[in-house]
Amino acid sequence: QLYFYRGLAELNSGQLVSAGKDFWTADKQCGISDKEKNLLRHLSDSCINLANTMAQQNQWASAVLEFSRSLTIDTSDYALYKRAECYLAMNRSDSAISDLDKLAARNQLYRNEYSKRGRAYSRLGKFEKANKHFETAVMQFPADTIAFYCKGQSEVNQKNYKAAIISLEQSVKLSPSDS
């Protein structure tokens, strides 16, 4: 139990890496009781709820911290995806791509994952990589207005104007009121 409670203390004092190691050690050495697992699950859910509130208030750094705290306890795909969204809002594209790549490695498919990864690569000026992700987005989700819009923007940045027009026209067709 020493590792478990030290992990809780470290988690609450912001020492996320140490906390994660202690939770792992506690579980491997003597197992974590159902009561302790429920406590961790509750703590993880609380972190996610607080992070979502912070994100709604555009307090991105605080949201990232809370999603990271949750991920120390439970490697939730949802928390990882939402943290990537926050990183994008903070213009930390490399961090967003890292989280989105972790999701892809787990074979988790979120509706806007490819568009978000494409936007992150666009912000880094890596338009060819961005286009590959936008292409995947529009193939996976052919009714995704945002994917076509972002693909069009990326094509303009590469001076592929004919392809840009096609993508942007598709975006308008899908959602004329948003254009």
Could you characterize the architecture of this molecule?
The structure is a single chain. It contains 10 helices and no strands. The radius of gyration is 20 Å and the shape is elongated. Helix 1 packs antiparallel against helix 2 and helix 5 (77-89) runs antiparallel to helix 6. It is 78% helix and 0% strand. The longest helix has 23 residues, at 34-56. The protein has 179 residues and is mainly alpha-helical.
Helix content: over 70%
Number of helices: 10
Distance between the termini: 58 Å
User: What class would the helix/strand composition place it in?
Assistant: mainly alpha
What's the short story on this structure?
This protein has 10 helices and no strands.
Question: How is this fold's topology laid out?
Answer:
Elements: H1 2-12, H2 16-29, H3 34-56, H4 60-73, H5 77-89, H6 93-105, H7 113-123, H8 127-140, H9 145-157, H10 161-174
Descriptive labels:
mainly alpha; single chain; 10 helices; elongated; 179 residues
